[in-house]
Amino acid sequence: MTKVIKWKQLNVEEHALCVFLQGVLNRTGIKVYVDIENYMTYLNDTYEYIDIYDLIKENSEHFKGIVSYKLDCEDVAINMAAMLCAKYDYLGVPEKLVTKISNISGLNVVRDMSEIKGSRAHRQKVIFDEVKDSLRNDGLVHQVVNKNSFLIMLRDFSIKNRYACIYTSENDEDLSFRREVLSFLKPVSPIYGWNDDEISFIRCISEYGHYCIPSDWCSNQSYFNANSNITFKQKTRRTKIRDNKHYLAIVVSDGDNIQWLLRDFATTSTFGNREKSNMDYKITWTLSPSLINLCPEALDKVCKFDKLNYFICSVSGIGYANLMSFPEKYIEKYCQYSIDTMKRMDLNVVCLLDNINNIKSQENVNKRLYFYGKSDIIGGIWEIDPDRYSSGNGKIYYVNDKPFVSVKYSLWCTYAKVGEAPKSFLDEYISILNSLKPNIHSEDGYTVLNVHPWSISIQDLDYIVSNLSDDIELVYADELINLIKKNVRR
After folding, report:
1. Torsions phi, psi for 366 (to 5 deg)
2. CA–CA separation, 477 and 249 (whole Å)
3. Which residues lie below 8 Å from residue 263, measured CB to CB, with a gap of 6+?
C-alpha cells in the first residue's frame, strides 16, 4: 500500500523533508507519494494518507543519521545534502526542523552543511569528490538554486537512484565544475532538471555527449518505475490527399518537457483544452519518448484523446540535445537508444532543434543524422534557431533520401501569455498562410508551422484554421514527409 502525504498541508521546510524521505524510502520498497496537483491520477495502487511525522517515526531505522542544511533559495546546501543522502542513506533535514525530527526519530545530526565554506561550486565539489565513487555515473540531476526559479522537487529522484545533484550557472568556476561532473558521467547519460540559460546549457551538455530531460518541476519521480514491456500504438484518422493543395503541418513544440506532460498538458494546457474545442483538424504534437520510462502511467492520459492528434518524437530523440554539437563517436548510441524507445511509442518522425550556424554544411548534416537516416523512421521536422525555430525557412535537408523539413513559420507571440495573443497577430499569420500556393513537386508546396504552446491557445489555433483558404490542406507531420518523398523533384 502506498503512503500518501498531503502536500498542501505542509510548509516549505516540510516539503523539502518530504522529498528527502521519498528518496530513501522509495528505494527500500516502502512507497511514499505526494498528492501534488494532478499526480493522483497516475496512482494505481491502494493508498492511505499519512502524517509526515508519523511516517518518520515508523521508518527511522532506514536512515543512518541526519544531514542538516539551511533551506535557502539561493544556496546549494540542499543539493549537497541530497548527494550525501544518495550515498549514505541519511535523512536531509532543514535546520528549522532538526530538533523536532531528532526528537521524533532518535536520529542524530552526523553532517552539517553550514560547516563547509566557500563558493557554490567549491562547496558542491567538496561533497561530490567525497561521494562520487559510490554514485552512479549514468545520470545526473541538475536542479536550479536561484531565487527566481528555485524548486524543491526532483531531488528524491537523485537520492533514490544515487545520482549526483548539482547546480551550475554560466560563470567560469561553475562551468569548470560542471565539466568535471559531465566528464564523470558515462557517454550518452540523461541530465534531469533544468538550468537558467537554456541555449548555453544544452550546447555544453551536448558537447560532452549527454542530453537533457526537462523535469525540474517533476514530483514523485522516485515512485515511478519504468515498465520495459509497455508499448503505445497511435490511432490516427487519415484523409484523402489531393494534388491541388498546399500542405500544411501544424506542429506544437516543447513536448520534450516532461514536467509539462505530467502536470497540466492533458488537463488545462493547450493540449488539454483541445477537448473543449468544437473543431476537428489535424495537429501534430511533439512528445518525449522518455515519458515511457519516467512515468508510463501517464501515457493513457496524454495519448488517448478522441481528437485528431498525432505524435512525433520531441527534440532531439530520447532527450533534448543539439546533435550538430554532439561528439561523433557517441551519436550512434544516442540515435539507437532514441530509435528503440521511439518504436515502443509508435513514433516514426523525429523533431530536432539546433542553430542555423551548425547546419550550413550538408556533409555535417549527413554525418550527424546518418543513424536516423538509415533507421526505420521516415524523416524529421527541424526547429532551427535563432529566429524562434523558423531560421531554416522551410528548407528540406535530405539524409539517405529521407526529408528533414525545417520550420517555415513559427506561431510564437513573444509579448503574450497563452490566450492573450492579439487578434492582429493572428490575422497576420492567416494572411501569410493563405498566400501559400499549391505545388506538390516543389519544396515551396509544403509548410511546417511551429506552434509555441506557452503563448498560443487552442482557441487561437481554432481561429486561424477556421480562416484558412480552401487551397490549404492540413496534414500530419508524417503525411507531409511522405508527400515530399513521393512528389518533390530534388
Report:
1. -60, -40
2. 6
3. 37, 38, 217
| CA–CA separation, 319 and 290 (whole Å) | 7
Q: Which residues contact 232 (CB under 8 A, 6 or more apart)?
A: 292, 299, 303, 344, 345, 346
Burial 135-173 (b: 16+ CB within 10 A, else e): bbbebbbbbbbeeeebbbbbbbbbbbbbbbbbbbbeeee
> pLDDT tens digits for 227-278?
777 888 887 777 777 889 999 999 999 999 999 999 989 888 889 899 888 8
As a whole number, mean pLDDT of residues 343-353 equals 96
Q: Return all residues near 84 (Cβ < 8 A) that are at least 6 apart.
A: 67, 90, 92, 111, 127, 130, 131
pLDDT of residue 405: 98
The secondary structure of residue 444, as a DSSP letter, is: G
With cell 552543511, the residue in question is 113
Which grid coordinates belong to 325?
554539437
How far is 57 from 430, CA to CA, in rounded Å? 62
Residue-wise pLDDT tens digits, 418-438: 889 999 999 999 999 999 999
Task: Walk across the sheet containing 47-49 and list its strands.
Answer: 32-34, 2-5, 47-49
Question: Is the previous residue joined to 422 through a cis bond, with omega within 30 degrees of 0?
Answer: no
Residue 478 is placed in which grid cell? Answer: 508524417
pTM of the full structure: 0.95
Other Cβ atoms within 10 Å of 317 Cβ, number:
29
In whole angstroms, give the CA distance from residue 457 to residue 461: 7
Runs of H (alpha helix) within 132-250: 155-161, 172-184, 198-207
d(CA 78, CA 68): 9
- 400: phi > 0 → left, psi -120 to 50 → alpha, else beta; which? left
Count of helices and strands (H, E) across the chain = 17, 20
Q: Give the pLDDT confidence score for residue 146 in this predicted structure.
A: 87
- Say if strands 32-34 and 402-406 run parallel, antiparallel, or are unpaired: unpaired
pLDDT exceeds 80 at position 206: yes
Region for 172 from its dihedrals, namely left if φ exceeds 0, alpha if ψ lies in -120 to 50, beta otherwise: alpha
Using DSSP, state whether 313 is helix, strand or coil.
Answer: strand
Strand partners, 343: none
**Does residue 302 sit in helix, strand or coil?**
helix
Supply the pLDDT for residue 225: 77
Q: How far apart are the first and last CA of the chain?
A: 60
